Amino acid sequence: MTISDLNKKLRKIKIDENNYYLNGLFGSKDNTDKIALSIKKGKYGIEYETYFIEKGEKHSIKKFDSEKDACQFIYRKMIYQKILLKINQNSDFFGTTVNERLYLSGLIDEFENIKKQDKKLAKDILRWLKVDELSIERIVN
């Protein structure tokens, strides 16, 4: 995945461009208060650095040697952020089925696609929805 591919994927899943910065090429024009990716000359070649700037300070800095790995990291972070936001908006799942929890969280349509493409993420979503481990294994596998 390239930075351009990452931008297309984020737009496809309706992540607002103001929520990310991709080396000034895509997303927001500034890197403050959002997840960011910068390309730098490192000690041994090009480095891809991901981080979050808050109050002028970089936090959660992670460096990658490959554009693909950095982009996948950002994509996963943005997906998790989007999903957790949806879940937290509807956190009262007491007495509901798994399908009802997916529906209430707004994830019913997305979950089937995620389950096909990323089993780890599918399991994480079900855990966040407070589904027991035995059911998670049955649903995802």
Plain-language structure description:
With 141 residues, the chain is an alpha+beta fold. Helices cover 48% and strands 21% of the residues. The protein has a five-stranded mixed β-sheet, covered by helices on one side. Strand 4 and strand 5 form a beta hairpin. Helix 1 packs parallel to helix 2 and helix 4 packs antiparallel against helix 5.
Indicate the overall shape: elongated
Query: Roughly what percent helix?
Result: 40-55%
Order of helices and strands: HEEEEEHHHHH
Number of helices: 6
Strand elements, count: 5
Rounded Rg: 17 Å
Reconstruct the topology from this structure.
Layout: H1 3-12, E1 20-22, E2 26-27, E3 35-41, E4 46-54, E5 57-64, H2 67-89, H3 98-104, H4 108-117, H5 119-128, H6 133-140
Parallel strand pairs: 1-3
Antiparallel strand pairs: 1-2, 3-4, 4-5
